[in-house]
Amino acid sequence: MCLVGGFMVLLDVSIVNVALRSINQGLHASGDAIQWVLSGYSLTFGLLLVPAGRLGDARGRRRLFIAGLLSFTLASALCGAAQNSTWLVTARLVQGLAAGLLTPQISALIQQLFRGRERGKAFGLFGAVVGISTALGPLIGGLLIQVFGEAEGWRYVFYVNLPIGLIAVPFALKLLPGASAEQRKRKHDFDPVGVILLGVGIVVLLLPLVQEQSWKGSAKWLLIPAAVVILAGFLAWEVHYRNRGRDALVDLTLFRLRSFSFGSSMITVYFAGFTSLFFVLTLLLQFGLGYSALLAGVVSLPFALGSGLAAALAGRVVHRFGRSLIVIGLTLVVVGYLGVIVAVREVPTHNTGWALLAPLLIGGAGSGMVISPNQTLTLAEVPVRQGGTAGGLIQVGQRIGASIGIAAVGSVFYSELASSHGSYNKSLQHGLVVAVGFLLVALLLAAGDAVWRTRQTSDPAPEKLAQEPAAA
Question: Could you tell me the pTM of the whole model?
Fold first, then answer.
């Protein structure tokens, strides 16, 4: 059930990319509205991750999981039924909130239900879902538009969530554990001031990133230092609140765990490089080379296959290799992305799709060896009772990283597109150089951590995986 919920939420991150032209035809939506269909989801997705994780830890994860699942399904129905762009954008914002409610419960439930090597396998399967859903989104979206037509096909990109959500709810009620007696009896302080400060800080930070192309001029970047000030105020409040003996929204002692602080930082940088590929690749294939939505989706299939298989296998051996496995994965991702650049440069024709298959397969395999092992090792030393909060923090980092990456890569892409008078091939090459830069930073971080661990008497994260008992 956890994997089904994760698949739905992450599928909607990428599936809409190939539906933008269809939405434009069907609703005659403006460019700003189209941008908000994409960015609004990411914005509200990041807003609830940490508060929802904290609430799930306190009141029971099944309750929050089902509430998020039902809300996401309803919001998907509203998106598909939209009669104008304002309706669609509003429903899309609600869909992002539901995704933020649901997502942190997934990693927390995996921590709660599994231990040792079995937890690694479970996170491996979740990592496979992350890679497969991200890469399969364009393919599924393209297939639906091909079947139902350009004018109405975009509606089924959202409707596809309905049968999945409705079938999953009764199974979630039956299979997932409810709140413990202690959770039901205990009174909790949910730190409303902390919730507001964190929410405002995240929104102010993400707004200029997700609206980088729509908001012209440099004034928007003033929101970044404003967000830093707000988030610094949040940290100061959390310290003050905890010193008063209250339950802070985020227990900052989590960051004293080296495995957590390192893993959450590295994956933020990784997502800045990882997610931007599909953004610029879709633009090249559909607008530069004239591929249909379906064919553009087919090109991404090797990445999905490589990621899914590698993630499942990596989850079985992460306890043995630890962070070294992530270093190997990051190396393969860099090689794959460099291969994409070479393929686009050397085959700038309609045969580009064929040339991309091998590097995308390599990049996908590498990605499968990064996301799920990192999730396993990052949460290995986190107490189960804080699993939702910790999972929410990791997801916030991923959303911020993805927004930074798409903003940076998109800016270079569109700048080159203007200066080269419409050369999508050159624009993609320049944009992906930035993405590779982010990936190399993540690789250096991972390699440095792996070297540090080899100098210690043992790697605490894999040991923790093998020894920690399960807790409900």
Answer: 0.83
pLDDT, one tens digit per residue, over 147-182 is 998 889 999 999 999 999 999 889 888 888 876 666
pLDDT tens-digit series, residues 333-382? 999 999 999 999 998 888 898 999 999 999 999 999 998 889 888 888 88
HEC assignment per residue over 282-319: HHHHHHHCCCCHHHHHHHCHHHHHHHHHHHHHHHHHHH
Alpha-carbon distance of 284 to 208, in angstroms, equals 24
Task: Map residue 246 onto helix, strand or coil.
Answer: coil
C-alpha 324/C-alpha 305 separation (Å) is 22
Distance of alpha carbon 345 from alpha carbon 362, whole angstroms: 18
Residues with Cβ within 8 Å of 30's Cβ and at least 6 positions away in sequence, in order, are 85
The dihedral through the CA atoms of 281, 279, 313, 318 has a sign that is positive
Instruction: Show Cβ contacts of residue 265 under 8 Å, excluding neighbours closer than 6 positions.
Output: 397, 445
CB distance 430 to 412 below 8 Å: yes
Query: CA separation (Å) from 388 to 18, 163, 420, 447?
Result: 32, 27, 47, 28
% of the chain residues with pLDDT over 70? 94
Locate 165 and state its tokens.
């959500």
Would you say 77 and 94 are in contact if contact means Cβ atoms under 8 Å apart? no
Rounded to whole angstroms, the Cα distance separating 376 from 161 reads 28
3-state SS record for 162-206: HHHHHHHHHHHHHHCCCCCHHHHHCCCCCCHHHHHHHHHHHHHHH
End-to-end Cα spacing for the chain: 17
Residues 184 and 187: their CA atoms lie apart, in Å, by 8
Q: Are 39 and 142 in contact (CB under 8 A)?
A: no
Report, in angstroms and rounded to the nearest whole number, the Rg of the chain calculated over CA atoms: 21
What are the tokens at 324?
A: 């070294």
* Neighbouring residues of 324: CB distance < 8 A, sequence distance ≥ 6: 450
